[in-house]
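Limitations
The structure tokens in this dataset are predictions for the assembled complex, not deposited experimental models. Users should treat interface geometry with appropriate caution, especially where small molecules or nucleic acid strands are included. An illustrative entry is reproduced here so readers can see what is and is not provided.
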Amino acid sequence: MRANPPELAVRVRGLRKEYGGVAAVDGIDLDIAQGETFALLGPNGAGKSTTVEILEGYRHRSAGEVSVLGVDPAHGRLDWKARLGIVLQSTGESGQYTVREQLSHFARFYPNPRRVDDVIAAVGLEKQAKTRIGKLSGGQQRRVDVALAIVGRPELLFLDEPTTGFDPEARREFWGLIEELKSEGTTILLTTHYLDEAARLGDRGGVIVGGRLVAVGRIDQLGGAEARVPLVRWRDEAGALHEERTERPAALVVDLAQGVGGEPRELEVIRPSLEDVYLSLVHAAATASATAGTARELVVMHTEKMHTEKEGEPA
Amino acid sequence: MSIISHGVARTGYETKGYFRSPDAVFFTFLFPMLMLGIFAAAFSSRGDIGLGPGSPDHVSVAEYYLPGMLAAGILLSGVQNLAVDIAGEKGDGTLKRLGGTPLSPVSYFLGKLGRVFVTGVLQAAMLLVVAKFAFGVALPTSTQAWTTFAWVFVLGIVTSALLGIALSALPRSSRSATAVVVPIVLVLQFISGVYLQFSMLPAWMQNLASVFPLKWIAQGMRSVFLPDGFKVLEQNGTWDLGWIAVWLAVWLVVGLVVSRLTFRWIRRDA
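Predicted assembly:
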């Protein structure tokens, strides 16, 4: 075990995870600074959950170096776990306890817990504090998950698809809660399918496709400047469709208009959204590994499915 | 020691959760009382159970079945309840969540053991009260009998709890847990002298039952609650208290080792 430079909460080098000789995670390097919120994006079965579960200490890696808060998760002890907060992808069922009972119980495990009432207020469940968790709505149960993960005052918080199934209002409230934790200096590793969520919460992000990190950087710079160059599209008088990428779309449109002597047909100026950039990244990476990756993707899809669905079937 | 204090906290939490789960309470807590009532009512018209004509030793049906029901309660509270419960916690993500907290697995087990002990004691107390006041069973008065009761009960309940934890590794999913565990527990009860009079079973079945712990728990309880003369009905014509201790201790160690080797917070991959 080697201590990180103090500014790094997570340091990963050459991480690999194989299932039956097939790589689900295939050489990932990743740094997350202390206090940073990092958003991990990627399609289902890309290796997100496997990566996160290795960092959380749930799974052992096949190769590579991993350091989380200065500790190798494969040898993480209880005092290390006390510094983490984990929101799993699926909700645990402890339906016969009330919100307050459950939080008070979990708070005991930690050396320096937050006040239970403060946590209940932070997740907006004051009115449900004495309600059994089994009687709460799905969104409210998810807030209990978050409350349980933050009651121990974690330095590093893992959020695995925390807002799946939320309505838009609940999602915005949840974002507010996470922003509060950010402002308190909590380091956060978020995996999500929602690009707006990644953009809103993430200081930086990365895209995993086929077990590899294909892009890392500030969310608004993912994919590089090239991927964000506006696109001008129009149809010429002969009916052919034209597309041109340009940093100066207004100038191009003026030129076009002068050339045609009027309105170009079907004129569009498209500024690629985060979603466009993301989809092109995923598509490019998937195409590049299509020949080599078919078998791997099947295995990865299978294993991730087993992780994410309620565990029940044999591994 | 936070491991111990967390174990105590877990015991309270677990016990509360147990009594809020109606199916667990019915099938593992109240069941032996229900069965005692059924047996007493069903067979009471046949009169007392005795050693034969002319023998002074005879007991009522309720008195005869009380030791078996106490033994069954120990088995249900430990093996059946914990095996199904822990397999369920594995399946619904409860264990995975606990595995991500600084709770020691030892504290988790202490909580399970503590819960089984608390519910087992309450169950035994209720059985004795029901037997005495509802069915007029005369309970023993000697210190020696209650000492035997105490050690058979404690050894039995701890062994039963550990075997429950060990057995929880067997069901491949939480959905199949009941289907895997209940038949094992049920067959044991039939061959070990809980529902059927042990002395009336064929020798091969008695020998088979002697491999498993329930027969020994039931035998220990019979030694406490039946007249001493009934020992002639046992396999060796004696209560064999020494062998009861040995066999239960062996199964306790087996349960401990298997639990230690098979328990995981999550199903680990290759």
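Some entries come with short summary sentences. For this one: Residues 305-315 of chain A have pLDDT under 50 and may be disordered.
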